[in-house]
Amino acid sequence: MTIRSTGGRVAAYAWFVFAVLNFVDLFAGVTGDPDYSATTFTIAFLLLLGCGIAYAVGLRPMIMGDDDALTVRNPLRDVRVPWAAVRGIEGKNAVTVRFAGPDGTELETRAWVHQTSPRAQAKAEARAQKQARKSQGPTLDLRGRTPTGFVAQQLNEMRDRHRPKTKSGAPDKAAAARTEAPARGTVTWSIPAVAALVVPLVAAIVTVVVSTLS
Fold this sequence. Notes:
Number of helices: 6
Domain Low molecular weight protein antigen 6 PH: 66-129
Oligomer: single chain
Protein name: PH domain-containing protein
Low-confidence stretches: 173-179
Distance between the termini: 55 Å
Strand content: 15-25%
Region (Disordered): 115-184
Order of helices and strands: EHHEEEEEEHHHEH
Structural class: alpha+beta
Number of strands: 8
Pfam family, one: bPH_6
Strand order of the largest sheet: 1-2-3-4-8
Mean pLDDT: 82
Radius of gyration: 24 Å
Shape: elongated
Keywords: Membrane, Transmembrane, Transmembrane helix
């Protein structure tokens, strides 16, 4: 199960195309003579910075669930949590995961993708309540009425499926015994994402400073 932002990816690729066309124009002189001045290189580094932002914000964010763990990838950090370490998944304004951190304390991460504004959440709940009144039945479960709620529901179902169980449905003590260390989630910085932002920014600043001093 992999969830990404379609709009974010489209915007990121659109920026990449825009940046490539500008690079060609700057250094090949499509609309004029090529110019290799400090200003040109500054503009080029700023375009690269924009590409770094497009990569970090548009392409990187993702929610992925596999047989072993849940992964939440945000612009600059990656969170990977074994299903046994997940303590709760909620989907309100954003998909929020509570889990046991590396030292055993409870941590929380909010997914970048599939965020819902409070106004959209309120409208979804109002629609669900209206449907419940019309059907004259019990109050409907409001989860799944927005994209964030639906994703949280799916992830909770995956968590329940991947918990070790015996044939009777009880927790598998043998499986738990084989795992001596308790399950823990990890939080790591994305080196490529940080580099994609820091390197062109520093290069642009250095170019401006050198051109000013020369």
